[in-house]
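FORM 7B - TANDEM STRUCTURE REPORT

SECTION 1: FIRST PROTEIN
SEQUENCE AND TOKENS:
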Amino acid sequence: MIGSRRRRQDITPDLLLRAYSIGLFPMADSADDPELFWVEPELRGIIPLDGFHVSRSLQKLMRSAPFDIRVDTAFTEVMRGCAAPAPDRPTTWINGKILDLYTTLHGMGYAHSVEAFEGDTLVGGLYGISLGSAFFGESMFSRRANASKICLVHLVARLKQKGFTLLDTQFTTDHLKTFGAIDVPKARYQTLLAAAMEGPDLVF
């Protein structure tokens, strides 16, 4: 259930950060729709960092180090990868306005990407917003099997090491549930979010 939804086009980077701090995030109906709207789900997806699960098969694959994992070296390219149509995702909500906003936040030090490379070729990744002790995951993509999964494992390890307390996935999917993602009611999410916003912004 999405919950409240309000259209607006005058979103700025500073306003976007304030929105995240109170539980809102923007979306577009499609990549071709220039308008954005705020979303506040009645059920919010999170991955409890102490409940993150990695399957034995993925652990075995990671030991072979199939990809070179990097952080914040190809942020815009990761966003474009997430915005591109894929067999399991023919349409996307990432439009030009969202791309511009998050690229600006990346330059401000609030938006980050975890990337999987084969040589010099980007083959998967994810991106999101870091604020307080929370990381708000936005989207991920893969051009090779398991690339985004491995990026997620590296993200969680980084968040734990840095002392983050909340990993927001916005919604849950069957894919994310295999890693331990759960739905929490809006009131419970607001409690977790408020605690994550109490301290200073952690270094990602």
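SECTION 2: SECOND PROTEIN
SEQUENCE AND TOKENS:
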Amino acid sequence: DLRFPELLRYPSREGAQIAFYIAEWPTSRLNHWRSLLQARAIENDIFIVACNGTGHDGNTEYAGHSMVINPNGDILDELNREEDT
């Protein structure tokens, strides 16, 4: 879970160099999505590949913005809200 930093701490201490997050974060919390991913990369010195849902399910609009982040917290690549391949 992205909101719990200690969950990633253990794999990174054991030598993991990349972590994957798959989520359905809503548009209303897009800034949280981006900030928390960057924080996890920085505090664990690890690459992050994050895939977030996009579109609308009738109740919630999902933010999209899947991204790749380096251990310095720099966003290396980011998609937008549209479906993409």
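SECTION 3: OBSERVATIONS ON SECOND PROTEIN
The radius of gyration is 13 Å.
The mean pLDDT is 93.

SECTION 4: SIGNATURE
Preparer initials: ____
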